[in-house]
Design goal:
This protein is mainly alpha-helical and about 450 residues long. Helix content is about 70%, strand content about 5%. β5 and β6 form a beta hairpin. The protein is globular, with a radius of gyration of 24 Å. The C terminus is likely disordered.
Amino acid sequence: MDPITLSRIQFGLTTIYHFFFVPITIGLSLFVAIIETLYVRTGNETYKKMAKFWGKLFTINFAMGVVTGLVQEFQFGMNWSEYSRFVGGIFGVPLAIETLLAFFLESVFIGLWHFSWDRISKKLHAMSIWLVAIATVLSAFWILMANQFMQYPVGYVIEDGKLVMTDFMALITNRNFSLQFLHTVSSALASGMLLVFAVSAYHLWRKNEVEGFQKSYKLATWIGLAAVIFLGLIGHQQALAIMDTNPMKMIASESHWETSAPASLSLFTIADQENKRNIVDIRIPYGLSLLVNLNFTGEVVGINQLQADYEARFGPGDYIPPINVTNYAFRIMVGVGLLLLLLLFYSGVQIIRKKPLEKMFLFKFFPLAAILPYLSNSSGWILTEMGRQPWVVFGLLKTVDGVSNQTITTLLISLIGFTVVYGGLLVVDVYLLVKFAKLGPRDENVDNLVTEEETGE
């Protein structure tokens, strides 16, 4: 129960809570834009009905994401004031641009989209949801730029103990940033498609709005499959880039202690970090050499050698992140991704074969697929942030030096408060998503008739 641990727990919890909403917001906004574009091009009213339905789920998720995101930023001043002083000259720039450009763009056009059905032309209305979708991607663009500076700082000098930006374009052209951006957006698209896939399967199982949900199901399958395949390819490129900039993160996630050639890949490992050994170690021979060097015999540096190198570069200290946490987080992320790939590939094959959906293997369990992206996304961010430890800005500022001067009592109160509030918002979001997802698209004329009968008008 020390200030550093409590501050880290609080920021970690609020980040995971917030990221519960972000990928679905990005993915659903793009899907709604595609569905409404199909409506504009074909004039098929089924697409309009489905655009409204999926747009309702998107709006619920967007509102929750805004609330959790705004509160999260307060913690930079509350719990991480030393970090804010040191990096604010750079970190604050993309955050400010995100608010002024992306967030306001989202807010304005989501209101226009929601309230202007049949009041403006179809093309203008579709353009408004496309602008919302573009704004959600832009929001991720600026936030990830700030985050990747923490992972691999570029374009700066240190003046009077603070970071000063010298090259804004260096932040944009940061190799790690571009890969992380593509990785996150493709993950978000896959997450949104899995929600559409799962909800559509639920209604098709019950034979509700069959035409509309068949179209949504097929579209989500193909877009989701493409997104997951791209996600895996770009994820591998990102891992190779991290090996160049912060190899300790990747090597720690493999529990690979000693430099070797060839190097084996961890399948299941329980590490004893204190004694720098693995208690349980089930590995795939040559696997790590193949992933890192694209050959079976290439040398892979070990954790102990990297620790010695970091001590030479940065001074005495422990530069090894939590081994078991990063190892399991990486395997959950990859394992869930492979499961999604198999599920969507199987669905795509059955669609091509024109096999009735209700006759697919374990079709009744398809709605549960909506849970899987949350596991993959959360474990991915745990790997990203925990793998950077002990640094809050790699090579420049350690986590222990970035925390505010807060008492344990104050931190406990804020930690419990944030956890309760965010937990409540999460429950509300899930409740509303499940409620309206089960209802399906409603006939507006029927809804109006029911309202008139209830009010006596």
